Fold:
Amino acid sequence: MTPKDFAKQSGNESAATRLLSSWMTPHRIPAAIYTDPEIYALELERFFYGHHWSYVGLEVELPNSGDFKTTFIGERSVIVVRAPDGEIHVLENRCRHKGIRLVQAPFGSVGDTRRFICPYHRWCYKLDGKLVGVPYRNGVQGQGGYPADFSLKDLGLVRLQVACYNGAVFASFDADVEPFKDYLGPTIEPFMRRTFNGEPLRVLGYNRQRIRGNWKLMQENIKDPYHPGLLHAFFITFGLWRADQKSRMVMDQHGRHACMISARNLGGQNEEVTGGVNSFQEDLKLSDPSVIDVQHEPWWGEHTVVMQTIFPSVIIQQQVNSLSTRQIIPVSVDCFDFVWTHFGYKSDDDAMTRRRLNQANLFGPAGYVSLEDGEVIEFSQQSHATYSGGECLAELGGRDCEPTEHMVTETLIRSMYQYYQSVMRP
Amino acid sequence: MTPKDFAKQSGNESAATRLLSSWMTPHRIPAAIYTDPEIYALELERFFYGHHWSYVGLEVELPNSGDFKTTFIGERSVIVVRAPDGEIHVLENRCRHKGIRLVQAPFGSVGDTRRFICPYHRWCYKLDGKLVGVPYRNGVQGQGGYPADFSLKDLGLVRLQVACYNGAVFASFDADVEPFKDYLGPTIEPFMRRTFNGEPLRVLGYNRQRIRGNWKLMQENIKDPYHPGLLHAFFITFGLWRADQKSRMVMDQHGRHACMISARNLGGQNEEVTGGVNSFQEDLKLSDPSVIDVQHEPWWGEHTVVMQTIFPSVIIQQQVNSLSTRQIIPVSVDCFDFVWTHFGYKSDDDAMTRRRLNQANLFGPAGYVSLEDGEVIEFSQQSHATYSGGECLAELGGRDCEPTEHMVTETLIRSMYQYYQSVMRP
Amino acid sequence: MTPKDFAKQSGNESAATRLLSSWMTPHRIPAAIYTDPEIYALELERFFYGHHWSYVGLEVELPNSGDFKTTFIGERSVIVVRAPDGEIHVLENRCRHKGIRLVQAPFGSVGDTRRFICPYHRWCYKLDGKLVGVPYRNGVQGQGGYPADFSLKDLGLVRLQVACYNGAVFASFDADVEPFKDYLGPTIEPFMRRTFNGEPLRVLGYNRQRIRGNWKLMQENIKDPYHPGLLHAFFITFGLWRADQKSRMVMDQHGRHACMISARNLGGQNEEVTGGVNSFQEDLKLSDPSVIDVQHEPWWGEHTVVMQTIFPSVIIQQQVNSLSTRQIIPVSVDCFDFVWTHFGYKSDDDAMTRRRLNQANLFGPAGYVSLEDGEVIEFSQQSHATYSGGECLAELGGRDCEPTEHMVTETLIRSMYQYYQSVMRP
Amino acid sequence: MNVVEEGPGARIGYIIQRLALSDLYQAYADSLDRGDLERWPGFFTEDGSYRAQARENFDRGLPLAAMFCQGRGMFQDRVTVIAKVMVYAPRTTQHVVGMPRVIETGGGEIHARAQFCVYHTLPHEPTALLAVGRYEDRVVEDIGGRLRFRERTAVYDTLLLPNSLVYPL
Amino acid sequence: MNVVEEGPGARIGYIIQRLALSDLYQAYADSLDRGDLERWPGFFTEDGSYRAQARENFDRGLPLAAMFCQGRGMFQDRVTVIAKVMVYAPRTTQHVVGMPRVIETGGGEIHARAQFCVYHTLPHEPTALLAVGRYEDRVVEDIGGRLRFRERTAVYDTLLLPNSLVYPL
Amino acid sequence: MNVVEEGPGARIGYIIQRLALSDLYQAYADSLDRGDLERWPGFFTEDGSYRAQARENFDRGLPLAAMFCQGRGMFQDRVTVIAKVMVYAPRTTQHVVGMPRVIETGGGEIHARAQFCVYHTLPHEPTALLAVGRYEDRVVEDIGGRLRFRERTAVYDTLLLPNSLVYPL
Ligand code: FES
Ligand code: FES
Ligand code: FES
Ligand SMILES: [Fe+3]
Ligand SMILES: [Fe+3]
Ligand SMILES: [Fe+3]
Structure:
């Protein structure tokens, strides 16, 4: 906390309010947005609990009627459940009696009961949230029970808006949220449709990490085409990345979502495009190339790598044959959980499944590439937490927020913060 | 934090103050009282450190002169000690020199010294707290030492008010606190006298849990006769509980303390009284009935189960032959320690001791019944912490705060919060 | 939090501001200065990040060009590095691009690169902090890159002021900080020069502890000649300390730094000077006297023990043959890390090194003496955190802040807080 | 070491028994950690007893245990209640148990001791320490030569348990 | 215990193998903890495989592993990338591994299991838990009589890993 | 494995020694954990030495140890000071120690190594990690055939100790 911060706190207006009122430059980012608990609380409110859609899972995770999972939107636990009619409901995981988180298991099935029953006093909810039973409602032997004007009708588990997009499930707390397709917008939606193309999916497994950094640092990381060829020596060393490879930076009409689109390089190096990276070790070779044994899939088209950041909650990864959703679950201002769901298509043959699993060595908590992203995010947070007057620079490729046909730019970060400012302004 | 909360915090009056000023409905409980640190700090002040009595132990824990224990009232450490004259003193565990917590051991004896000596500079206190020695008070060889006007008299360990009630020990920081008997009030005191009847006690042992929930959730739990026949499937499954069993809900004149009084059921079931609980598993039987091998004790009278909640700090349990005090030690707004002291009477024969120990399988951190209470309390806190605009309902049996002759009611919870509002109102 | 505190918080002026405005008595210390996060934040600002010098290490830790270490000033990570010209630089460990903590290793060498390269995007800094390389600055194949007005000049790693004092290294964030010698002042500097006399040093090793107490409690501890003969029974039991041993309490012109100077006792006891300490166990003997096998070193002069407290960050220990720096690294309002660097002189023979190592048994986390200091500091914090209205007394030897020729006084504590008040006053 | 030196046969027998003891301890932990709760009673003799007891009670001679079973029936009831009756957040445990040491042998019983730490993992939460402590055991060679506990006391140091003790230690 | 009683020779052989198994497990952990990463591939057969896999995947039959190697080449690549390619905060690990238990023997393989907990220490930070879990292993007597893993799966309970898994478990 | 194959007798001797080594390690930990501090010096030879040393010192060849004893006298002094002289909050410790591994044998000494984690429990507080690390030991067969440490170094990874190290690791 700088003396200025301190002084501010003594006034009537909080430091957070002042910062959010006055911050106008998306290319210069104040460290306080990563560390101020008041700003974080407002982010939860406006992004995760407000008029935005958040990722909650894949339909294939709930194959049968009665199957459910629990996950989080922001810090709030929600239940995702498949109703007998096949519909997916997303419900607040919060009993309306005394407010308890009534479901604990990450995955499960309600079985034949077709009900969620709160363990504490056994209030009984249908899978669409409706409250259908309250023990002793009419008392026992004429004694006690609920008052005459007590109505079950308003006491269901709160149901969220749900969008199922070819197998991907999103939800929103806001009843007035725009339709999901509009939320993505015309520039982003085609890329969503590219991966979630209606082909049935198969979950290959999960990775879960707790990363001690502010959640936005992960969004920035995947909107940053500047780092992969510099941080990820694996890409460079084994010739998988060049700064001059064909690529596009696309964002939605608000600048919040983005796609980093590129075609993997064929190997080799030259001074300009590796940025003179001195760790480039020409003599290193992979003994076993199976982690980079790529097979082109028909649905790719010309793009071999597409990283989608769907604000605020998820990244949709296609890195050649490795596919995953990466859910961002904020835990506190300086921490988030990062949940990877690797998947393929039901139609994959064994060789393709093996290929996806081999390539998974690049991703997740032990990933040759992704491990580094988690590390630098923690390095960032450590610094922001202590150099609180600090500022980050995002001026590569200029100071505007336009899409580009190259990757030598931080435009996607700027466009996200331009949107952020517009929503967070007091 | 809801946007409303956020807005409030920017004003001059804190969200806590506003909430406490405006909350009038004890049957609708705002989640913020379980999560707001400012409210919690005020609770410590007004309840634990104010004009209330808190449980600190049993006399039998300190059989000999010089025996002491350390425990907590609210977050504050206190020393309970038996002086040479047999009297019990309760002292702030805080040296008046540099304020250190001078005694660390949970149990001990000062032995022949008859003094507490602070380890840091060896200020020396009598067992009633009086400061009787300060090293180098008059300097050494004419140099240094304390000023002439330095007086030991005002620098004793602060002594609390103490009430020994037939072996149970309570203390208060407030010199003007009402007498303990008045504090209990005429409706509750007879039940206290029923268990602590002058018969010498024997401690059977301790259980200690750290529960990540607000301390009031535990008070509510034991003021809630709605849940035992619904949450505690053990009771239902093995026929030990029916909602129609004879029972009474009693509170003191302020509504803060309570007794849930009932007579254990003789087994069997019917639809109405088990609330249609679908987990009732008729085919389950206990292979060994010793955990429910009850023997009526003369002092019981007609009541087989009496659960006393003595606000704010303790529950006095009689569940058939299992007796315990359950001390509530708040640790933070979202956490408390729960300390169980199981006891019997000195006059118990071995069979009765074995019986109490067998029945102890129902209680504590691994208790067939109590484990569930700890679990649902944590489920509650998880939800309150994240759904901060939430509200709990306590409308079973109406919205008033009167005693009842049945258990189909949340009247005790309402009466506690009515009292709470009166004390906490700014 | 007392009700008064609570009330204060509801007003416009924070409790911290009010306290700092009104506290005038250095001999009576309010517990809140050990527990209030706002006060702590201001301390970081005014002491650790303001016009003070902080200890960062010993030159001998970085023998070669390119050697570096990371350490902390306050909560901020800094890099200490030896440049090719032999100069020591101290740099903020914070990349100017996205602010990450770019160096993680506690010790290391940049080797032949002579550069710090940020891992994230490989911005490249010279060892004096200058930014000398930014990948893709001019774009790739005419696309992207930094704007024309983008200047590397202002984006170096921020360089701190550095003072190398005969092998001890101090640094300051304040460009206008007074010269280090003036900072020590004429009364303290000779003692610094006594230990750091130009004789080359040898590091014997490190001890690191995390102590759950406010950082000032450690400064107080080493400014407190009242406790060693009372708390440290080892000193008393084995005759190494008497309250009447020749000693002096010296402070700098501001009262912030101090030296406790004394001559070790030759053994024996008498009632007055041991304060009647009843744990004095005459029958205990050391089976092996090697931990107290003292050999006088020429540079000592008449003093056998000199403990220097260089405010705010370090203690310079000479306890007969045991030498160390003890760095104080605040972690939060209620916690600090304590880093011991034991050293001797390069010219020590093996016997002297063995002696220093043997005597090290008295110090550090397992030290016969120092262990006790860590313990009482935690006992203090426990109490301050819960008895928030508490007050500490520092009236031994009067209420003034003058140097003394004896040790029966708390004058050094008072003088530190007099200085503290002057700096912290709003 | 209480090896009675009576030739290689006896010594081999002793060694085999030590390995069997190690296997018993590891199998016990493993079956709990993998959720095979039903196998738990079988690690005890028919008349065996089990206690999960706080060290403060153990050390001070106070008889209370957080969990107490005596005789196969009580073991089976504990299993039934855990598996079918109680409500709690699902969790997994993981024990790490030191090599058991034979303290004394006599009367057909081995008095053995081993140290343990147990972690638990709750939904959506990092793994956390549940309890550390030591086993104080009386082991016998039961029917079929299989080693079983006649008495096992899991003395846990962890005075403040993190809320619930669902499974035996 | 699957001791085939065929005289003292066989029994001694069995015992020696159990100790060798223990040594294998401890040496594996020790070489990782002391930073001898280069020795890691040598604990596996040429065609061996390794997985560090979350228990939720293992239990539900999902094939994904956080770390996966099959064949000496992939092992060596993992070592190279850890040692020479990746950027991460330096750290040390410390395993504590229980005595391995033989679950089954057959086809020249030992199916063994042991429980582990692993701590890591990062610069300027207190030691923290990295992961707990169990090893599910297939061990064979390799060339020269040395025991090696044909297959090792480190099944970790710790669903929420504390950020990075730099070294194998 | 350094088993010199000289017939079943030698092999049995080897095995017995390995078990005795395990017992030594467990008994050492157990006596500390149960507060039998007085027995601690007896685990060392008369001229034995003990160090509790931070790994950063050990690895960099810096001689400082947080705790250092050389010769029975210094051991006894450490015990006396802990038991009768120093002020500290009472606590209990709990070690979990892996099976020791013989690194090398020669000159009448066994160079052995084992990994440990140690927890401590302070009054009114949850159990917490104290330290993790490994023992680097030189063990000899002392008078009466009992195994004792000639040298034990507890190398702890835990650079930031949680305040005090009251008891030896
Ligand atoms: S809390 Fe859900 S039914 Fe009472
Ligand atoms: S703090 Fe108690 S005597 Fe000084
Ligand atoms: S953060 Fe350092 S180069 Fe980008
Ligand atoms: Fe990346
Ligand atoms: Fe209950
Ligand atoms: Fe001291």
Observations:
- Residues A 221, 227-228, 232, 369, 373 surround fe (iii) ion (ligand 4) (CB under 6 Å).
- Chains A and F do not touch (no CB pair under 8 Å).
